[in-house]
Amino acid sequence: MTNWEPGTRYNAGDIVEYQGYQYKIIQPHSSQSDWAPDVTPALWGRLSGQQQHHSPPPQEHQHQQEVLHHEKPPSYGSDTAQSDQKVEVSHEENKKNWYDLDDNRKKQLLVGGGLAAGAALLAGGYFAYKSHEKSEEEKQAQTWALQRWLNEAKNRTDQYQRNGPSGPVTWVLTEGTNIPRNAIEVGLLQAQKFYICRAFFDGGVQVGKASPTLDKGAAIGYKHEEIKIGTYEILLGDMRALRWVPAKGKLSVSELGHRPVEGGHESDGTRLYIAKAEHKGVQYPGKASEQLDGAYIPYKETEKRVKEYEVLCYNS
User: Fold this and answer.
1) Is residue 156 a part of any domain in this protein?
2) For 47-76, what is each residue's pLDDT tens digit?
3) What total of structural domains would you count in the chain?
4) Residues 170 and 309 grouped into a single domain
């Protein structure tokens, strides 16, 4: 057990003691004098069930770690994350990229839990792509962007639950194998139904497949990998107002003859559209764009490129 100190690099799994309490890291970082564990809930979580102490016996220390280990991971609606946030983030500020904020504001957000919701989602098992290769600034930017997507998705879902659909399609936030009613069905493999999903990943919002039979509920394709996702948006819709339009190769939106439904975007802003493509006799949902040479579908730990596919479009 080591005491917390400023000017120290702390990594995943680290536990420190500060003012008689033990804290476990939430977000890896290099400590600063005014980022003590008791005032930075986005960076440190205090081990549960403790009384203030000094150098507890090994049995007590082991028990405290076990209590933390068996706590239920926070979900996308984590009350803990909300209570940890001690700074207000305005609607307009939430639209900005992390790099557009000045250094003082970034520091306020880090100290005051302004990244709490994104950090809680990562701590709960949301996949962080090659985070070991990213700088602290890049990790913070990714956490901020993940949180922004999460907040926007929650707002869309709240509006849908209050007012119902406002158009032919609606993205709603869900978790695990919970498939909402009216989700658009794409394919069927024996008893396995596939639906259209999307999720934030490595700076973009990627389109993929969802099914109650998948391990985490959903999977997206990214850089030739199938990434399993447990918190995602699923597409609800009325197919009477939609249609599937044939396409091949790089998507030409102007040649479709109908307006395509936007699915997400790459980290550079390139728009991604919803595609379905056949592979080994089964239709799978995936993505297409004006940059990709065909549709890409997540399939058995990788991505498959399919030259000919269909794009989901509005009728009108």
Assistant:
1) no
2) 865 544 444 433 433 333 333 333 333 344
3) 3
4) yes
